[in-house]
């Protein structure tokens, strides 16, 4: 499945939900289902600067594909992280860089990405793209 | 519940308006708007307060009929604008009972006021290497960072008054801290994240017995209590217009004449000079020497209108209403399973920081926002307090006199919903 396919699937799932309460209930559920990362993973190095909630993220390259792991101390943020991982993890740097996160706006959670929210989510999205840029550059050097 | 809220004015001697919260709410247009299709419940007043029509109208009136630059033209409008702006300064002077209008410097807000004192004192002979400044553990970043910047430049040491578990200053520790090295004490009057009302008069008296001047960060006290700088005898007092129902971008620094005269300006430009040649410039008198450039004229006028608005009520009656909100909200919140209030000082203003077990403040704030309830979540620009309590963040509900007991009830319902969703 392409990144775009996954995004379309998520948009479809959210379209079926009636109101904000149901949408947040779903996001919370996704947050709960995302495995907690071990404490030794939650280092300053892996932490993104967020004002309100803390976000930790790590990336690895396996067979040319970026595998993402992340966590947050706020459940809604963690649920949103789960969505970003679902969309972008397991894809090549080129795919990640060429597919913007359109679904964020379509399911109406773009307000969580605004800088005023300071929840680290916007920073996480940027970080995913940074990882992609870095791995792409590394691949080109070889 | 209605009868509780309609607090009659008990001191009707000086013809103050009777306080009826439902009538008062009509003066604030934003309070009748809806958010997420629910009536707005605005409980983020410690961040900024809403504005009554009279404030909004005063600013639009100024731009429609009086706009001109002040202090420099002799044409009709310039004189009119100057008069309105200087009238606002007089209102500020009376609002905090300063001795003279010369002691009122218009600034952008409390943050700029503190930066002004820090930068000006830095240029004076007041501080020398090895001196000390005392602040407290419950300061807003605005009363920490300017001093750190100063300390770096002048090799001064910052000392910090600790707080106890209830969120009260350890006054004994303060008394042991002060010495002949201390050159300034700068403390917050009311904590924006704990709600604590500090015994600033006691602090000022004690500091003065060592000849040490005191700056009071009044950003949170000006909206909640009647401030009298002469009675407090503080040397500096800083507050922001937008927290006292006035516009953003305007505030005031009060400084005793002797200090303001001694302090050199830290910003230069128009409107603050007496004579400029390329060899030398002489400065205007206080307060103008601290007000370089065209000021926020409309903002000053709006602040004046906000002060007029507040002054139509007996401040004690407003305070009684806020105290009732604080008491009622504290009781109701504590009934919620797993909720803990951070900041349980004996003397508190209507600010309540809280946490709920196993639910991040971000999650609390996000969910109740969908019900139109605005609270603040985060560190409230007081990261040292968060470190003190070992918390990443708190949720905070802060009340103004236009809030109602029903709104407290709505907050409680909202929080129950949050708990249901996360547990």
Number of DSSP helical runs of chain B? 15
Task: Let me know the average pLDDT of chain B.
Answer: 93
Find the structural class of chain B using helix and strand composition: alpha/beta
**CATH topology-level fold name of chain A:** Sufe protein. Chain: A
The end-to-end distance of chain B, rounded to whole angstroms, is 32 Å
Total number of strands of chain B: 17
List keywords for this structure.
heterodimer; A: 142 residues; alpha+beta; Sufe protein. Chain: A; three-stranded antiparallel β-sheet; 6 helices; globular; B: 423 residues; alpha/beta; Aspartate Aminotransferase, domain 1; Aspartate Aminotransferase, domain 2; seven-stranded mixed β-sheet; four-stranded antiparallel β-sheet; 15 helices; disordered N terminus
Describe, in plain words, how this protein is organized in 3D:
- The complex is a heterodimer of chains A (142) and B (423).
- With 142 residues, chain A is of the alpha+beta class.
- Chain A has a single domain, classed as Sufe protein. Chain: A (Alpha-Beta Complex).
- In chain A, 51% of the residues lie in helices and 13% in strands.
- In chain A, a hairpin with a 6-residue loop joins strand 1 and strand 2.
- The model of chain A has no long low-confidence stretch (mean pLDDT 88).
- With 423 residues, chain B is an alpha/beta fold.
- Chain B folds into two domains: 117 residues, Aspartate Aminotransferase, domain 1 (Alpha-Beta Complex); 249 residues, 3-Layer(aba) Sandwich (Aspartate Aminotransferase, domain 2).
- Helix content of chain B is 38%, strand content 16%.
- Chain B has a seven-stranded mixed beta sheet, with helices on both faces. In chain B, strands 13-14-17-16 form a four-stranded antiparallel beta sheet, with helices on one face. In chain B, strands 1-2 form a two-stranded antiparallel sheet.
- Chain B is globular and about 70 Å long.
- Chains A and B meet through helix 2 and helix 3 of A and helix 13 of B.
């Amino acid at each position: 499945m392409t990144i775009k396919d996954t995004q379309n699937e998520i948009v479809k799932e959210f379209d079926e939900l009636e109101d904000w309460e149901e949408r947040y209930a779903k996001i919370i559920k996704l947050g709960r289902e995302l495995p907690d990362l071990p404490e030794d993973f939650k280092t300053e190095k892996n932490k993104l600067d967020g004002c309100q909630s803390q976000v930790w993220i790590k990336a690895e390259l396996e067979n040319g594909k970026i595998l993402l792991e992340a966590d947050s101390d706020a459940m809604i943020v963690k649920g949103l992280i789960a969505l970003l991982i679902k969309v972008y993890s397991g894809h090549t740097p080129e795919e990640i860089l060429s597919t913007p996160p359109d679904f964020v706006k379509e399911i109406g959670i773009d307000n969580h990405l605004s800088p005023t929210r300071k929840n680290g989510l916007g920073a996480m999205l940027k970080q995913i793209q940074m990882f992609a840029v870095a791995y792409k550059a590394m691949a080109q050097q070889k | 519940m209605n009868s509780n809220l309609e607090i009659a004015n008990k001191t009707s001697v000086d013809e103050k308006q009777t306080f009826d919260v439902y009538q008062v709410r009509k003066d604030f247009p934003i309070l009748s708007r809806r958010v997420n299709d629910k009536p707005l419940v605005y409980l983020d007043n410690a961040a900024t307060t809403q504005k009554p029509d009279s404030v909004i109208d005063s600013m639009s009136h100024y731009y429609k009929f009086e706009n001109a630059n002040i202090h420099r033209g002799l044409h009709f409008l310039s004189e009119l604008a100057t008069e309105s702006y200087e009238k606002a300064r007089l209102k500020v002077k009376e609002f905090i009972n300063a001795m003279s209008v010369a002691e009122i410097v218009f600034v952008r807000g409390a943050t700029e006021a503190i930066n002004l004192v820090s930068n000006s004192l830095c240029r004076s002979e007041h501080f020398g290497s090895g001196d000390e400044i005392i602040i407290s553990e419950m300061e807003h970043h605005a009363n920490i960072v300017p001093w750190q910047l100063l300390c770096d430049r002048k090799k001064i040491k910052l000392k910090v008054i600790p707080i106890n578990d209830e969120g009260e200053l350890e006054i004994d520790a303060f008394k042991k801290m002060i010495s002949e090295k201390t050159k300034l004490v700068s403390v917050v009057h009311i904590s924006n994240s704990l709600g604590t009302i500090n015994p600033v008069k006691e602090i000022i008296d004690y500091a003065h017995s060592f000849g040490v001047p005191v700056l009071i960060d009044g950003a949170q006290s000006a909206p909640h209590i009647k401030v009298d700088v002469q009675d407090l005898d503080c040397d500096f007092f800083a507050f922001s217009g937008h927290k006292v129902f006035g516009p953003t971008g305007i505030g005031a620094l009060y400084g005793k004449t002797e200090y303001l005269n001694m302090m050199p300006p830290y910003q230069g430009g128009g409107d603050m000079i007496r004579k400029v040649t390329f060899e030398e410039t002489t400065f205007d008198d206080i307060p103008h020497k601290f007000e370089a450039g065209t000021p926020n004229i409309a903002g000053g006028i709006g602040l004046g209108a906000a002060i007029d608005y507040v002054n139509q009520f007996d401040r004690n009656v407003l305070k009684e209403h806020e105290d009732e909100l604080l008491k009622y909200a504290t009781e109701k919140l504590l009934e919620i399973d797993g909720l803990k209030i951070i900041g349980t000082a004996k003397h508190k203003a209507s600010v309540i920081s809280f946490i709920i077990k196993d639910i991040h403040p971000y999650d609390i704030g996000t969910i109740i926002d969908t019900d139109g309830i605005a609270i603040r979540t985060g560190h409230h620009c007081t990261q040292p307090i968060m470190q003190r309590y070992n918390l990443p963040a708190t949720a905070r509900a802060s009340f103004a006199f236009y809030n109602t007991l029903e709104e407290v009830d709505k907050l409680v319902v909202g929080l129950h919903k949050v708990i249901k969703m996360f547990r």
